[in-house]
Amino acid sequence: MGDLATPGVAAAFAADGFALVDRLVSEEMVVALHDRFDRLFRGEFETGVPPDEVNWQEGTGDLTLTRQLCNAWRADRLVASVVLSPRFGEALARLAGWPGARIIQDNALWKPPGARAVGFHRDNAYLAWYQPREMGTCWTSLDPASAVSGTVCFSRGSHKWSTGGDPAMEFHGPEDYRAPMEVAASAEGLVPELVPVEVPAGGGSFHHGWTWHGSDANRSDVHRRTLVLHCASSEARFHRPGFAEGNGPIYTQYAHAEDDMMDEAHFPVLWTVDGYRSPGLPGPPTV
Ligand SMILES: O=C(O)CCC(=O)C(=O)O
């Protein structure tokens, strides 16, 4: 089962749509990643390859927003060693019930004191461009995370809510960050139960692609940095009818004209039950 998808974690993931974990990466790795976040948000890309989405850079970024880079693994080898690790791939595949896991996207998130909220959303809502339209996420906190520092919050059991016709969602600093989730809850006839991920630095959570989640403003005087790994099934294929939806326009640039395969150079397979892993991926993290 790997060391992360324990029976307790699997039971919580199935029942609630998320599970909390006290330790995902070492304290040494947390410190090393702080340094990489500093460099990445300054525009220093170790490999010379930029992330797929650069939503914030020092000097130009809006100081009130949560800083975000997507697919920082392309730019930084230490980030790659963490988000491409077979250990996380195995955990997500086992929790989601897939034969294996491939990375779709990582997120480097940095919410400094005073930064605004991240709107509630469901990850699968953005993913009409591949099939099966499923995502599993490993969220690793690089600071002690608390409700007051604007940690991520999950709506318990919301992965089981209806998946058609979700209200519009806004990720970056919306006026009312809970509103779309509350609309969805009321359509279910439910009062949402929100659970903040309060974990030490190096701890975090796993969540299901249909689980509603978002995070409040950082009302503390400490930073909140997070490294997020989003995976799909190793069997996922592009789905052309959905290319224009969600974040499809960014990631379908890697599609081939002739077939629907997701090229392993861009969406590497981290782990499969048969022991496969895309060639050329980094070894396990060294710190
Ligand atoms: O950490 C946050 O505030 C949001 C994270 C998120 O949207 C995710 O991990 O899917």
Short description:
This protein is of the alpha+beta class. It has six helices and 14 strands.
What does this structure look like?
With 287 residues, the chain is of the alpha+beta class. The protein has one domain: Sandwich (Jelly Rolls), CATH 2.60.120.620. Helix content is 20%, strand content 23%. The protein has six helices and 14 strands. The strands form three sheets. Strands 1, 2, 3, 4, 7, 10, 12 and 14 form an eight-stranded antiparallel β-sheet that branches. It is globular. The protein starts with 6 loop residues before the first helix and ends in a 15-residue tail after the last strand. The model has no long low-confidence stretch (mean pLDDT 96). The structure holds 2-oxoglutaric acid (AKG).
Summarize the helices and strands and which ones pair or pack.
Elements: H1 7-16, E1 18-21, H2 27-41, E2 53-54, E3 67-70, H3 77-83, H4 86-96, E4 100-111, E5 118-121, E6 130-131, E7 136-141, E8 152-155, H5 179-187, E9 194-196, E10 204-208, E11 213-215, E12 224-233, E13 237-238, H6 248-251, E14 269-272
Antiparallel strand pairs: 1-10, 2-3, 3-4, 4-12, 4-14, 5-11, 6-13, 7-10, 7-12, 8-9, 8-11
The structure holds 2-oxoglutaric acid (AKG).
2-oxoglutaric acid binds next to strand 7, strand 11 and strand 12.
